Amino acid sequence: MNLTWQKSESLIQPLAVDKNLSKTAIYIRKNIEVTETENESGETVTKYTYDEAIITPAEYKALGDNDAEVLYELALDTPVTYPTNGHIYLPRYIDDYDREMDKILKPLLLITAIGGDVSTLFPDIAQKTVNIYDATRLKANKVSMNIAELTQLFYFLYFQKEELYNAYRETLDELL
User: Fold this and answer.
1) pTM (predicted TM-score)
2) Cα distance between residue 34 and residue 39, in whole Å
3) Which residues contact 162 (CB under 8 A, 6 or more apart)?
4) C-alpha pair distances (Å), 9 with each of 12, 34, 102
């Protein structure tokens, strides 16, 4: 199905696929970008810009497997607010954090496997921090996180991605 895309923006965080906004239309969004701007009162607000297509529920039901997979991929780029710090992250970031955590975990496992004591070799490893940027990529939204905090963000995004995958599977089930 060919979708007609138009540029849209909102001060409310959009869903990649919104089936509840209207009974007669389903909104599909991609390329969601998050920026911070000032409103008329001079307050800093979060603004979302994105490409949006609107289809009918019948057209949505007519989507094929490939279209459902595309919708899932788009949903991975839908910003979510992390309740711990209020910053916005993308569920797709889980793949980046997974690779980064592997870089930390593999050497620690090797040290342990050869009988080494990680706490002796790296006594301050739990206090080491890395800078994590949210989806706005603004320096002001950079957060320093230690391994425990990064792990918590990892699991938050992991469960967000799982929810999206389950919604994708439900869509496939509806199509079959």
Assistant:
1) 0.70
2) 15
3) none
4) 9, 10, 37
